[in-house]
């Protein structure tokens, strides 16, 4: 591993260790927000739709999007929410049209991200990397976009590029388990057993999860054998 990457990884390990020490947050007993204007009501409704997507209630989300449209709401955020729902339902053609309609808007980063995920799920890795890179270029601090680009690069065999984006995601949000886990997979994949186990220990992982991540690395290695191994971190 190059000196620059070692330095970058070392910083990530420290941040991940701090994240592992974080205690649970208490839930607030304060009442939720109350809409005081039509704009507030629209925002609250969109938050409700997003929560449905987070709970994988995609059909319910689409029903609420239709309800907003029938009331005359043509906000671009609704287009993005619909695209996300349809992508999750494997309605790829419809999702692609919706994402593409946003490429010249303020939601272009999110649109490129969605197109990248569509390409990845369709087995078009080169296109996925291009679209995800376009998303990160437009929103360089977006953790999910960095993580997804890093994972796509890892699948393509670009270990150094993957490390940069996964480490950046981990530094931006040390509590994000996806980028941390993907980083551990990358370390296993490239032969850095010591670095992978150190990061896992600092995150407080149990043996079962570590084994799962190691198995994922072995699966990726079988698919992308050109990923170069490197010496373990001392």
- What is the chain-wise order of helices and strands? HHHHHHHHHHHH
**Distance, first to last CA:** 11 Å
For the largest beta-sheet, the strand count, sense and barrel status come to:
none
- Number of DSSP-assigned strands: 0
So what's the overall shape?
Answer: elongated
Q: How many helices? A: 12
Q: Could you explain the architecture of this structure?
A:
Helices cover about 70% and strands about 0% of the residues. By secondary structure, it is mostly helical. The N terminus and C terminus are likely disordered.
Give a short overview.
With 234 residues, the protein is an all-alpha fold. It has helices spanning 3-20, 38-54, 58-70, 76-88, 92-100, 108-121, 125-138, 143-156, 159-172, 177-189, 193-202, 207-223. Residues 1-33 and 227-234 have low confidence and may be disordered.
Mind sketching the topology for me?
Blueprint: H1 3-20, H2 38-54, H3 58-70, H4 76-88, H5 92-100, H6 108-121, H7 125-138, H8 143-156, H9 159-172, H10 177-189, H11 193-202, H12 207-223
Keywords for this entry:
234 residues; mainly alpha; disordered N terminus
């Amino acid at each position: 591993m190059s000196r620059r990457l070692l330095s970058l990884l070392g910083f990530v390990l420290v941040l991940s260790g701090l994240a592992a020490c974080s205690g649970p947050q208490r839930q607030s007993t304060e009442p939720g927000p109350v809409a005081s204007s039509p704009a507030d009501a629209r925002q609250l409704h969109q938050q409700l739709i997003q929560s449905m997507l987070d709970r994988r209630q995609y059909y319910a989300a689409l029903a609420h999007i239709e309800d907003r449209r029938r009331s005359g709401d043509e906000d671009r955020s609704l287009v993005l929410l619909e695209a996300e729902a349809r992508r999750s339902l494997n309605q790829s053609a419809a999702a692609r049209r919706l994402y593409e309609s946003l490429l010249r808007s303020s939601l272009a980063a999110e649109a490129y991200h969605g197109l990248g995920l569509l390409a990845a799920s369709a087995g078009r890795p080169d296109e996925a990397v291009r679209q995800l890179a376009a998303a990160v270029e437009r929103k360089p601090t977006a953790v999910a976009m960095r993580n997804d680009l890093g994972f796509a690069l890892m699948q393509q065999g670009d270990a150094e590029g993957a490390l940069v984006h996964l480490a950046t995601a981990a530094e931006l949000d040390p509590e994000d388990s996806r980028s941390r886990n993907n980083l551990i997979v990358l370390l296993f994949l490239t032969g850095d057993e010591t670095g992978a186990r150190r990061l896992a220990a600092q995150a407080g992982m149990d043996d079962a999860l570590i084994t799962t991540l190691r198995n994922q690395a072995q699966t990726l290695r079988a698919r992308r054998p050109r990923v170069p191994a490197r010496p373990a971190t001392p």
